[in-house]
Design a protein that fits this description.
Elements: H1 6-16, H2 29-53, E1 58-62, E2 64-72, E3 75-79, E4 83-87, H3 89-92, E5 101-120, E6 147-154, E7 160-168, E8 189-198, E9 203-206, H4 214-217, E10 232-234, H5 235-241, H6 246-252, E11 254-265, E12 276-281, E13 296-305, E14 308-332, H7 334-362, H8 366-373
Membrane topology: Multi-pass membrane protein
Family: Belongs to the P2X receptor family.
Subunit structure: Homotrimer and heterotrimer; functional P2XRs are organized as homomeric and heteromeric trimers. Homotrimer. Forms heterotrimer with P2RX1. Forms heterotrimer with P2RX6. Forms heterotrimer with P2RX3.
């Protein structure tokens, strides 16, 4: 209710009033120590973990990568099937180029001079027979080598199997040679060319660094201690760094991982952004679970023999190298900086809440603290027919 100009004066006073919180200072060594300790822990977390370790003041981006490889090396073999033979990159890298991987042949079983004709199927559950009634003309199975003709013929002196139309003579299920035929593969080298990009920061780089030239590439081999910048890797060294024996792995083959890590702080000079290489075996080599071990593929070399198509079938064992590129880049940005500062200030405010709860719950003088911290006033009412003034104000209500 306004009286004369009093309403306007009250509104003016309210507009220019300033309110502040009441501060209760508790002079207690235990409470003060607890408060400072909590504040120190929060500050250590914000400065040490968020800002220094996790670089919370940076915006981040993940890497986009492309990889190409080039293998080099020569091996010499002398077998009864192939005789004396030189193996170069066109023979043992199959296929010549893959995406982010390459396969190197290290061992093989050869079935030479196959032609499409009729022969006895290898013994098995669906091929062993005693008479033609056990063989079904036109029947074929994905686990067998050809299409049955309906005849039961002699496979060996003591065993008969169904005749099939197939590439004959059939491949035998022999174990691979040990030691491996291409044991020299451990000295082959591979050039890994890796280009990376962080699109958010428009940053590009590759693992062939600016100071690397053609003469340097022609003689360098990666060594973590003496030559960590060389992008050419010896296959035997890759296996050794992964804790594997190359010759043992080469018998049945396997899968090896080449991991390239690009973690870059783009607030620092560009030259500080360098790749880190690590190596590990990816396939299972557990001796207690050695069914179908290693890695192998089949391929054939075709030729004409007296006008008739023939082939040499090769079951090749080798090591498949998978190249995996990881990375994250960070650069200063005001938005994450402000977000982390705000989160830190909120945590500092939480320290007072925790200390208040401990003081008002567990301290011996918690009742006294509670009375000092909280003040309670009655409800004076929003509307009243009378205005009560404190004594001594000199205000007298109008008649």
């Amino acid at each position: 209710m306004c009286c004369g100009g009093r309403c306007c004066v009250s509104m003016t006073q309210c507009f220019f009033d300033y309110s502040t919180s009441k501060v209760l200072v508790i002079r207690s060594k235990s409470v003060g120590t607890l408060n400072r300790f909590c504040q120190a822990v929060v500050l250590a977390y914000i400065i040490g973990y968020v800002c220094v370790l996790k670089k919370g003041y940076q915006d981040t981006d993940t890497v986009i990568s492309s990889v190409t490889t080039k293998v080099k090396g020569i091996a010499l073999t002398n077998t009864s099937d192939l005789g004396l033979r030189i193996w170069d990159v066109a023979d043992y890298v199959i296929p010549p180029q893959e995406e982010n991987s390459f396969f190197v042949l290290t061992n093989l079983n050869i079935t030479p001079n196959q032609t499409q004709t009729r022969c006895a199927e290898n013994p098995g559950p669906g091929s062993t027979c005693t008479s033609g009634r056990d063989c079904k003309r036109g029947f074929h199975d994905s686990r067998q080598n050809g299409v049955q003709t309906g005849r039961c013929i002699q496979f060996s002196v003591t065993e008969k199997t169904c005749e099939v139309l197939a590439w004959c003579p059939l491949e035998k299920g022999n174990d691979p040679p040990d030691p491996p035929l291409l044991a020299e593969a451990m000295n082959f080298t591979v050039l890994i060319k890796n280009s990376i990009r962080y699109p958010k920061f428009n940053f590009n780089k590759r693992n062939i660094l600016p100071h690397v030239n053609s003469s340097y590439l022609s003689q360098c081999v990666f060594n973590r201690t003496t030559d960590p910048d060389c992008p050419i890797f010896r296959l035997g060294d890759i296996a050794s760094e992964a804790g594997e024996d190359f010759q043992t792995m080469a018998v049945h083959g396997g899968v090896m991982g080449v991991q390239i890590l690009w973690d870059c702080n783009l607030d620092m000079p560009e030259s500080w952004c360098m790749p880190t290489y690590t190596f590990r075996r990816l396939d299972n080599k557990d001796p207690d679970n050695n069914v179908a071990p290693g890695y192998n593929i089949r391929f054939a070399k075709y030729y004409k023999n007296g006008g008739k198509e023939s082939r040499n079938l090769v079951k090749g064992y080798g090591i498949r190298f998978e190249i995996m590129v990881f990375g994250k880049a960070g650069k200063f940005n005001i938005v994450p900086t402000l977000l982390n500062i705000g989160a830190g200030l909120a945590l500092l405010g939480l320290v007072n809440v925790v200390c208040d709860w401990i003081v008002l719950t567990f301290m011996r003088n918690r009742q006294q603290y509670s009375q000092e911290k909280y003040a309670y006033v009655g409800d004076f009412g929003l509307l009243s027919n009378e205005v009560t003034e404190p004594s001594g104000t000199g205000f007298v209500e109008d008649d």
